[in-house]
Amino acid sequence: MGLGALVAGLALAGCGQAAGFAPESGSAASTSAPLPDIGLVIGDRLPDFKVESLAGGTLSLASYAGRPLFVNFWATWCGPCRIELPEMEAIWASREFGDLAIIAISIGERRDTVETFVTEEIPLTFDVGIDPSGRFNDKYNIIGMPTSYFLDTRGVIKEVNIGGMNRDLLVRRISTIADPV
User: Fold this and answer.
1) Chain centroid, CA 69 distance in Å
2) Is the residue at 147 inside a domain?
3) In contact, 158 and 42? CB cutoff 8 Å
4) Total domains in the fold of the chain
5) What is the model's pTM?
């Protein structure tokens, strides 16, 4: 295996929690059947949430009702998140999936850290929530970052991805909840 392939594989593997978890497989994981201790699974409804919006106010799951929704849990220190976020932004900006909504929730970081990151390092124009206390780690059983949930218009989870995604994988996952325009 070449150095480039090794670096790419590690980048897409995902970041563990602050305690140092890393996925055993070394690659992004998708759950299509219930897997214990990984989090919510396909066919479940994502539990409602309210989270502080970086733009001001509060974001809630209910406010996205009737739209396909991509929920991403991430952190500024996470290498795979830094690779994935620009791809998410490019898909969002292109509007290639019409009514798709994206919300990226930063876990365990201060508002000023996230604000600087999304304005100066990797500009994001989709909704960004902040969870400085890290309460979402337990509520959504997040074991690695990034962790992504793809919900249909009824709020049902159609795909779960733990670890980073390149553009092709993002498009495949989003295609399970939204049609290209």
Assistant:
1) 11
2) yes
3) yes
4) 1
5) 0.81
Residue 94 lies in a domain: yes
**Would residue 154 count as lying in a domain?**
yes
| CATH for 156 | 3.40.30.10
Cα separation, 83 vs 106, whole angstroms: 15
User: Per-residue confidence of the chain (181 residues) as pLDDT tens digits?
Assistant: 443 433 334 344 456 543 333 332 333 444 444 444 335 889 888 888 999 999 999 999 999 999 999 999 999 999 999 999 999 999 999 999 999 999 999 999 999 999 999 999 999 999 999 999 999 988 887 989 999 999 999 999 999 999 999 999 999 999 999 998 8
Residues near 112 by beta carbon (within 8 Å), at least 6 away in sequence: none
CB 110 within 8 A of CB 132: yes
Domain of residue 90 covers: 3-174
